[in-house]
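Re: the request from the purification team.
They wanted to know what the chain is likely to look like in 3D before they choose a buffer screen. I agreed to run a prediction and write the result into the notebook, where they can find it.
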Amino acid sequence: MKNLEHSEPFTIETGQSYLSKSFQPRAGFVVGCSIYHNNTDGSINPNLVSAKIVTDSGEEISPLSDIRHYRNRESGYYEGLKPLNFETNNKTYRLEIIAQEAFTGDFVGNLVFVFKPEGDC
């Protein structure tokens, strides 16, 4: 059985405000994602923090939006995800995170892609 998740850790160090991280998840159909991070209370950056996901060629998978839009809504495993619905096709993807102001502590988190289980129609 293939793993149903791809977890991509990231860190924006203290004093920085931007991240661009490339990664290559396994081949499969991604139904959604969540971003988990350590700034949920705004203690290391109370300003706007945005994220987007693009392919290595710049194709937008998920447009730039407030990072809170990527939170898991805890309404059920699949229902709580930010919907994406795309085939990875062995492409390389890039997570970009942009903050209006520099972080006052390390901003640490994980982008989690969730794959459609094999055999699901």
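For the purification team: The longest strand covers residues 29-37.
Please add any questions underneath this entry.
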